[in-house]
Amino acid sequence: MQQKWSLIEVEDKLVNKLKRELKLETVLCKLLVQRGIETAEDAEKFFNPSLDELHDPFLMKGMDTAVARLEKAIEGGEKILLFGDYDVDGTTGVAMMHTFFEPLNAQLDYYIPNRYVEGYGLSQKGIDHAVENGQTLIIAIDCGIKAHDLVADAASKGIEIIICDHHTPEETLPEAVAILNPKQAGCEYPYKELCGCGVAFKFVQAYAQKADSDFDKVTDLLDFVAVATACDIVAMTGENRTMTRFGLTKLNENPHPGLEAVRDMAKRSMPYAVNDVVFGIGPLINAAGRISEGKEAVDMLIEKDKEKALEKATVLREHNVERRQIEKDMVIQAERMVKMDSESRKCLVLYREEWHKGVLGVVASRVVERFNRPALIMTKAEDGRVTGSARSIGGYDIHQAISGCADLLENYGGHRYAAGVTLMDSKIDAFRNKMDEIVTETITKQQTTSVMTINAVLRLKDITPEFWIRLSNFAPFGPQNMRPIFMSKTVRDTGFANVVADAHLSLGMKQGRSETKYGIGFGMAKHADKIRTKPFDMCYVVEESNFKGKKRLRLNVKDIQIKR
Known about the structure:
42% helix, 3 domains, 19 strands, five-stranded parallel beta sheet, CATH 2.40.50.460, alpha/beta, Diaminopimelate Epimerase, Chain A, domain 1, five-stranded mixed beta sheet, inorganic pyrophosphatase (n-terminal core)
């Protein structure tokens, strides 16, 4: 798909002011202004975040009640159940809370629902588990915000629930003993973009603060929070960015044994950055819930013995190999279906009875990338029901669109860019047509145009080791603080252009009299012949490659436009 390039414009006055105050290159000052940073003081906080700046957890609505109930449970020796979703956010949240509270409560247990039997969120089977084991308090992590009936059922059986969730709440909330969700009405917590594990971390922080516990014991948990924040693709701003930066440091230097095992199993170059977590650690943890049981991931994450943790991580790696093959086959099938009968639709709703439930979301993401349209990938569930995962394109609220089909659905939930649905199989066609109708009416031309947003024009000669060091201070990168995309004009191949693995383009290039810079364009082999003979413009991100222990700067090329 041909992409439109769009260069972000910023006020020169603000850029020049920062340049004078900070003595930084113009291009870096442009990046700061794009992030809303307009003073030297704000830049200092951005480049050097401090854990002292973490918000008071008691600003979160419901926190006083939640802490008081947990104190009562621990002091009274009650049996407590940590209930988490089966994805990275839920499993790391459970592992984090278990790591902190297990020394304080020998009765602590955890439960991860089976994706195929119970589905997403709090489940009846989980409530029954608590009843059978005499557990009187459930802490729900990364789920529960819509579990009205289950919370009521648990209460009728003498079980109270504390909800730690970050998904968009409805107007009416479950009657839990306490709800921790910064997005709920009336919550004055200043940062709204925490993931589920992040909300649970604030709960731990509040408990420790009330108990006058050592703050180091709390911040020691940030490797869990960093992995969850990165993998749940929440905003990498404010508190999330601070916790992720310190959490990545711990992950690289002194992680908990389970995270060390899965980090090493991912086999990516050290030190780990957000991308390494998302594409290395995340798939391994998620593979447990996709292919087997999410509980396997928690078992590994809380393991204290390094050798045993590594054995458990090896099992997750095997699950992930299987997951990749299933995903590959489903993506091929989904693309064929779109080309056969859905090319004209604005929203792609695809269903096959035999598709694997565990990779629906991943496949939906691949379909969105391929066709640049919102997509729902669905498969058969139980009792005549269908379940599906939705993913969206930039700027379009898929959760809002799905809510317009509520009358056709048994259940749904999620947020702006990702959601899940359950419906009766008899309503698939009606749902498909209504979703297409809603999306057609509400999506804009701008949202459906594939746009490469470029942060700044950069000369190749300015890409130096010193520039890389300063650029690295913008990390960790993620939504609302994405890795900058640069553009360089009238670049020429230096004779190094080469096709790698049939699909990728290895480059060596110059601009004017600059030194040769090296790069890789994944999936861009089609440009090989033309760039050997013609100058071209390119957009790219700057990164550091580590091949056989040798580090060097590399341009990860995102798009090329051949000069006429």
